[in-house]
Amino acid sequence: MFVAVYWWRVHPGKEDQFRAAWRRGTDLIREKYGSLGSRLHRDADGRFVGYAEWPDEATWRAAFDRKMVYDDPATRAAFVDAIAEVPAHAHPIFTMTVTDDLLARSVASAEEQSHA
User: Fold this and answer.
1) Element (DSSP H or E) covering residue 64
2) How far apart are CA 5 and CA 93, in angstroms?
3) Is residue 93 part of a domain?
4) Within a domain: residue 109?
5) What is the pLDDT of residues 13-39, one digit of tens each?
6) 56: which of 13, 29, 73, 95 is 20 to 30 A away, CA to CA?
């Protein structure tokens, strides 16, 4: 398994818009490029951090090189509109190969959290 970690600062008041677009975009990226999904976190200073899992680095690289474009302009526009800041060049802050995975996984729990 391979992971990529990204971050975004969001315009105040657009957090829900960002989260909804992120969830839809994640679903579309999973369908089109074969990702395993993602988690979205919020750090103490309000920055959103996404942790995306992929079956391997080659699958992630193929999607990244295509800028993970998907056919839903409204979702993409909502996502971009909500963003105030990203890292330079919009590259992930980390890319890593998983060596040991002890996370407990629950689809129902993940779905409940995504709608919270």
Assistant:
1) helix 57-65
2) 6
3) no
4) no
5) 999 999 999 999 999 999 999 999 999
6) 73
